């Protein structure tokens, strides 16, 4: 076997996460490439699927460095950041979250008050669709190993969710902490928080060869991390997350999708990044400038006008995604923007990217 025989690269931060993935593999050998010590094995349930597992340690910097190096060495079809995470809202310990989008909480401007300037990591549309299918079908629960299952305080089987994950560089143990307040105010739709997804998925997709997604088992809730960790929540969350992961990977292995079919459609997060970048350049005060929002069919009273222009644009896009703001859509916004800026190459690029 060569390094390029790998189908899936799974990036983990902790030993217990690595072990949870290994429990679903057979014929495991630890091999070294470019300074990486990777566990390489075959899926127990998809014998033709070769999987490499690396452990980076906590934090986005190392996750990004090692994911980039591993992607260059193995050239997998798919990169998954896998591990445990904290729950922000709507989830319980033992539940599993697949990333619908991944926010970077650290980006912003530090003035008298921190002003967030959100960045994203890419999530592949086809993997997102598979994650939704797994989430809708509880058959993944049958894969849970003996160290996973029901967290006693919940009194129910773990559930799976597809939702936004927010990523930073700090362990959040108190919902009164500054970073927790930033999450609540700027990333209010996020349901989980961790410290590696942004780096791993940005690094793992640098060469635009691999599909990417993050899968996380919920091991604690922000306000009660220490108690949950002491009770053994991390191994349980990792086991539950691994069950979901390998259900998704089995479906991926059996998928009839033509390899490379996504190449013509940029990840949704990339499209949003480009839109916000152009919008804040043309309308630096925000979407309310020159009555743009209202002209595009939006309800200006719903806009959040706190912070600077970039933050206002971010809140506006979030409002559209959540179905609020009147009859406005990205397309109606673009139409009004093109009326205002008839010779903008940036706008032409956005429109062509959506066609």
From TrEMBL:
GO molecular function: adenosylhomocysteine nucleosidase activity; methylthioadenosine nucleosidase activity
Gene3D superfamilies attached to this UniProt entry: Nucleoside phosphorylase domain
Effector-associated domain: residues covered: 270-351
Record-linked SUPFAM superfamilies: Purine and uridine phosphorylases
Gene Ontology terms: cellular component: cytosol
Gene Ontology biological process terms, A to Z: L-methionine salvage from S-adenosylmethionine; nucleoside metabolic process
Domain Nucleoside phosphorylase: 10-246
Species annotation: Cellulomonas algicola
Identification of the protein by name: Uncharacterized protein
